[in-house]
């Protein structure tokens, strides 16, 4: 039913793999240098980070809202010569980890909740012009008609609600060597009280195909696997399908997919929401307190996007 969309999703998955391969996966051990102390003189203010980083902001998939906002940032702050490099969420965190280990400067398009804040000491660059917007919510959206066809699924999706801490905990598990499916199973077992609120009073069902769409961002891999398993446990036959961002929205709006838990609003996906709001059902926030922006390691001696305009 989703063949064309799926193909797009697979292509996006493939290019992520290729990008990762192109990055070399950190195999150049010969250049590894553990003697970091030598570069630690307090000369940071004289450092031209732009030159050191080749005037590159490490981006993710170009269809992501945070990628587009980063490109707007380059314009709004007149960061001449800077470029937001397209990549993938996985390649971005690999690049961040490699730079962090060597204490090298790096700027990434970042978002919270995200396990990288638990793993590394990072900060958001201040954004005095407000290009990245304020705090956001992550909303659940379903296709029109779901409430009538599959009222139990609709109700659980409508009830689905958790906190940034919940989401970050499971993301952190997935960032190690645990599969998203296993991490979701474990999270559900450990958080029975929370999950039981989502399914409280909802009747079990006997089958019925349900398709949830998402993008392979770390947040959405975690959330989609959790709610997918909860619906599976209720009796549905659930498929979770990774797509590109715009295609995910389109799939729910056209009714080709049943729903998604990945709508970042009001800013990050604001343009897509505007395009599709009349063709889908917005069930409101499943999480409050999300955020996007430019993120750097705390050891970097800059605090604001304005500091990047150093010639
Ligand atoms: N993200 C994660 C997405 C939304 C979820 C911030 C990378 C985006 O920028 O579109």
What does this structure look like?
This protein has 13 helices and 9 strands. The protein has 311 residues and is α/β, with parallel strands linked by helices. Strands 3, 4, 5, 8 and 9 form a 5-stranded antiparallel sheet that branches. A two-stranded parallel ribbon has the order 1-2. A two-stranded parallel sheet has the order 6-7. Helix 11 links the parallel strand 6 and strand 7. Helix 9 crosses helix 11. The model is unreliable at 1-44 (pLDDT under 50). The chain binds 1,1-dimethyl-prolinium (PBE). Residues 60, 64-66, 111, 217, 219, 245, 264, 268, 292 line the site of 1,1-dimethyl-prolinium.
Summed up, what is this model?
By secondary structure, the protein is of the alpha/beta class.
Helix and strand layout, with pairings?
Elements: H1 3-22, H2 49-52, E1 56-58, H3 65-76, E2 83-85, H4 89-101, E3 108-112, H5 116-119, E4 122-124, E5 136-143, H6 146-149, H7 151-159, H8 164-175, H9 180-190, H10 192-199, E6 209-214, H11 218-234, E7 237-242, H12 245-254, E8 259-265, H13 270-276, E9 280-297
Parallel strand pairs: 1-2, 6-7
Antiparallel strand pairs: 3-9, 4-9, 5-8, 5-9
This protein binds 1,1-dimethyl-prolinium.
Throw out a few tags for this protein.
about 300 residues; alpha/beta; two-stranded parallel sheet; about 40% helix
Number of alpha- plus pi-helical segments = 13
Main β-sheet description: 5 strands, antiparallel
Q: pLDDT below 50 for ≥5 consecutive residues: which ranges?
A: 1-44
Proportion of strand residues: 15-25%
CA-based shape: globular
Arithmetic mean of pLDDT: 88
